[in-house]
Prior knowledge:
By secondary structure, the protein is an alpha/beta fold. It has two domains: 21-47 and 161-339, Rossmann fold (3-Layer(aba) Sandwich), CATH 3.40.50.1100; 51-159, Rossmann fold (3-Layer(aba) Sandwich), CATH 3.40.50.1100. It contains 13 helices and ten strands.
Amino acid sequence: MTTCSLTFPPQINLASLPTPMQPLRRLSKKLGVELYIKRDDLTGAALSGNKIRKLEFVLADALAQKSDTVITCGGAHSNHCRATAIAAAMLGLKCRLLLRTPDPSNPPPAEGNILLDRMAGAEIVWITADDYKKRDELMAHEAAALQESGRKPYTIPEGASTALGALGYVRATEELVNDITNTMGGAHQPCTVISAAGSGGTSAGLILGAKIFDMNVRIVSINVCDDHDYFIREIGTICENAIADYHLDIDFDRYRDIEIIDGYVGRGYTLSQPEELMLLKEVAQTEGIFLDPVYTGKAFYGMVEELKRDPKCFGERIIFIHTGGIFGLFQMADELEPHL
Ligand SMILES: Cc1ncc(COP(=O)(O)O)c(C=O)c1O
């Protein structure tokens, strides 16, 4: 199956894998394509979503380094921070989160992911958006302070979107090979795999995995923040680092191999528009699937809009990766209510 050999570094099992891939029959009919959804929202309950695949590798490294505390960062309602806090609790590690909020002296209430972070025992340091620009520096500062006090910190960059973290999605493409074989009648059936890009690690892993496992797939990322050039840079760097770190014998060109569909950030990161919220409701009502407003909802909306423009723009078959984020729905209750 492989054209290139990769010896995976140690990994710990934290996610419920493999996740199912399911046909979306009614939406397929409406959109005029064969549409499947890869249920990475089912990697766990509180631990659900894409981040846990990356953390299986990253936290194995933290344990190998005998760390006792993990430090990471994200927006106030970060899914990555919530997954890190819970995984740390499962492994007996402490967790310190640097969370972004407009006014650190008046932090948001313990709802959604923040509630889960706090229940899992994470120490939260609230920082402003301006400070967040210096997040790596601030995390290094926290790590130094912890070290001073006798702890052994391990720092995880935003979204665990590193070469090591991206291996979680290389592993996921291995699952996709089986999913495609089982549902489409052959591992080499052409299809397009679509996912949301937030920090780029998921897309990087999918792009690398598609090459490593010689798949006949087009990998498309729809950005939910920043822009096309930012993601070519971020995903390109993660892929190139992984190729160097794991000696991957693959042909990769960031300008050729990364496909970003820009134009669906809408009102901005974490901000929703009525048409996006109405689509969340439609998907829930027609397929019983709950997308989240920040990532999967925007990417799904982008995919549907592109299909309206040209029903064959992604070919005959699409796999949408549901990367999780369910807890982000609850803080949107007031905005969703008028559409129900
Ligand atoms: C639910 C969800 N989907 C998608 C993404 C994007 O993944 P990545 O950060 O690997 O680009 C994230 C995180 O950023 C997320 O929390």
